[in-house]
Amino acid sequence: MMIVMKEGASEEQIQAVVDRIEKAGANAHVSRGQFVTVIGAVGDADSRVAEAGLELAEGVDHVVPIMKSYKLSSLQFKKGERSVIEINGRKLGGGHFALIAGPCTVESREQLFAAAEVCRDAGVPFLRGGAYKPRTSPYSFQGLGEEGLRLLAEAKEEFGMPIATELMDVRDIDAVLEVADIIQIGARNMQNYNLLTEVGRSGRPALLKRGFSSTIEELLMAAEYILKEGNQDVMLCERGIRTFETGYRFTLDLLAVPVLQQLTHLPVIVDPSHAAGRRDLVPPMSLAAAACGADGIVVETHHDPENAVCDGPQAIVASEFAAYAEQVHRAAELAGKTAEIIPA
Ligand code: PEP
Ligand code: MN
What we know:
Elements: E1 2-5, H1 11-23, E2 27-32, E3 37-42, H2 46-51, E4 60-64, E5 85-87, E6 90-92, E7 96-102, H3 109-121, E8 126-128, H4 146-159, E9 163-166, H5 173-179, E10 182-185, H6 193-202, E11 206-209, H7 216-227, E12 234-238, H8 256-263, E13 268-270, H9 272-276, H10 282-291, E14 296-302, E15 316-317, H11 321-334, E16 338-339
Parallel strand pairs: 7-8, 7-14, 7-16, 8-9, 9-10, 10-11, 11-12, 12-13, 13-14, 14-15
Antiparallel strand pairs: 1-3, 1-4, 2-3, 5-6
The protein binds phosphoenolpyruvate and manganese (II) ion.
């Protein structure tokens, strides 16, 4: 962090800034120019210096941050090497493109198994399904809870597919860890820092969804909460943000994909289902996501969407899923990725 003093700042004002930098735990390096003095705060206490409010100190003109506020997630942290998340030999990230597909929520064994079968037959490596659902209305179906987890465990056994499922509440973490190979943190919980810390401590791969009013930097800072507990396996998910547009549900921010990949070593995946809210928009946005370099797509499918209890209108109809997956895999390959396709 650089503190640029006002022209003519007094020695007392410069010394006061130096004292405050040192009090925050950093070293101060003073460079005196002909007109302006610049003070560099050097050391491992960037955030404490930032919080010291030096921009308001007497004689300070402005403050320039030098380091990014996120560290462990930054591409520099791994010297440019990209993270690969590997679960049961199935890879996502670092050149491997993977689909994570399944129903929005687990409704019954019949419904979950129908989706799992279609996904497995299409070569999908990871099965998704929510047992705990973050619903906007408290009157909507909230998920089957532990019964849903039990059905997911059965599907995992039957189809041999690792499971991605959402954790909403720290109190459910032990139950979720029984079955989840990937713990999903929903958009609404992206800034639930206690939850993120516990997922970090669990060491289980995490799928962190971008909050729909969160910036890219806030998403990376949320990932830091998981990473700083020693959990390296975090995938970031763009799932649409809120804008002024009302022509569809959310604005899928695909620019976030290449931009995140310039900033972080973590895999970046896209959820076109929740952004679109309509199944006709899901295939084109999936192709666009794969083409712009996403490391994976998380997508919803249902064998009978008209009777789905949750998110039916956005579910790819099961009978169309294989063709959908094939196209998406081709787009990923065009973008230079290896599509992770598991033979049934
Ligand atoms: C989901 O994936 O089922 C979900 C509810 O997503 P989001 O948290 O992005 O709304
Ligand atoms: Mn859903």
